[in-house]
Backbone:
């Protein structure tokens, strides 16, 4: 199983980035896709989660209204659109696939993890 993130980079505060997550080796459409992030010297935190087929999403309070998670089950890819980025969004962002649970419970665990992509937001 391979989970691969892309799209990270350096952006100024107020700018936008779109992260992509591709999953191969398992049936993409039966897994929830979850995004986490970890800033230096901080614990990993859940960012967003999307259900396998219903499109139901959940966002951490810190990103709600600015980030949008979507998925394309034909192309086996998920997209995290990040708008109005802030310096505190700076972190390594990880995509993961696993079981879906509603609400913050979706961040409890994941079966497959990517290596992460760096997002840096300058002030």
Residues:
């Amino acid at each position: 199983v391979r989970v691969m993130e892309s799209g990270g980079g350096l952006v100024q505060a107020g700018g936008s980035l779109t992260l992509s997550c591709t999953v191969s080796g398992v049936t993409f459409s039966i897994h929830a896709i979850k995004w986490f992030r970890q800033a230096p010297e901080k614990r990993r935190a859940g960012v967003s989660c999307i259900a396998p087929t219903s499109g139901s999403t959940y966002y951490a309070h810190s990103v709600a209204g600015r980030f949008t998670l979507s998925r394309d089950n034909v192309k086996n890819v998920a997209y995290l659109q990040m708008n109005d980025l802030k310096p505190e969004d700076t972190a390594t962002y990880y995509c993961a696939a696993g079981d879906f649970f509603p609400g913050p419970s979706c961040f409890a665990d994941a079966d497959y993890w990517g290596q992460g992509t760096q997002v840096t937001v300058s002030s």
